Amino acid sequence: MSDSYAKSGIIKRLLELAPIIILFISVLNEFDMNYSNFFSFNFTFILIFYWSLKRSESLGYGYIFIAGLINDTVVGLPLGVSSLNYLLICGFAAYLRNITLRPSLLQDWLFFLFTILVINSLNYSSLILFFSIDLNYSNLFFNIVFTFLFYVVFANIFTIYQKAIFREKHD
């Protein structure tokens, strides 16, 4: 009896840690979904924004910072650039969480668009000004558009997951 209880406790704990596990898998595999020149989206931005907004205790800022360092290493960016971006996303999500009286997917979605526009603008401006990295603006544009569009899909999937695993009422 205690063996099955221990196994179910381990499985439950792994399911609770799934957002962190998925975060590290996504940065280790450069999971930006770059399938072609016109279709790519940044899954990590969606994951960090959603979980920082809806259940901030699921992702710790330390884990997010380390994930950014790993992403910089995998992608070949200067160390700390992705970490700064990810922590800024957390800051925007925390701001929205604190000012929101009635959460709605549309409000979250539009604020996510504002967030990724600001983050990508700061990111790519610093990459161009300080590090002289060449960028393809059409790829950047399509990445922002598809990241924005896929937020709704993944937000609904994460909401279902959150209700099932954490047994919480979600607004």
Rg over C-alpha atoms, rounded to the nearest angstrom: 17 Å
Estimate what percentage of residues fall within beta strands. Answer: under 5%
The mean pLDDT is 87
Number of helices: 7
Shape label: globular
List low-pLDDT spans: none
N-C termini distance: 37 Å
Largest sheet: none
The helix-strand sequence is HHHHHHH
Helical content band: over 70%
Class derived from helix and strand content: mainly alpha
Number of strands: 0
Describe this structure in words.
This protein is an all-alpha fold and 171 residues long. The protein is built from seven helices and no strands. α2 packs antiparallel against α3, α4 packs antiparallel against α5 and α6 packs across α7. The longest helix has 30 residues. The radius of gyration is 17 Å and the shape is globular. The termini are far apart. The mean pLDDT is 87.
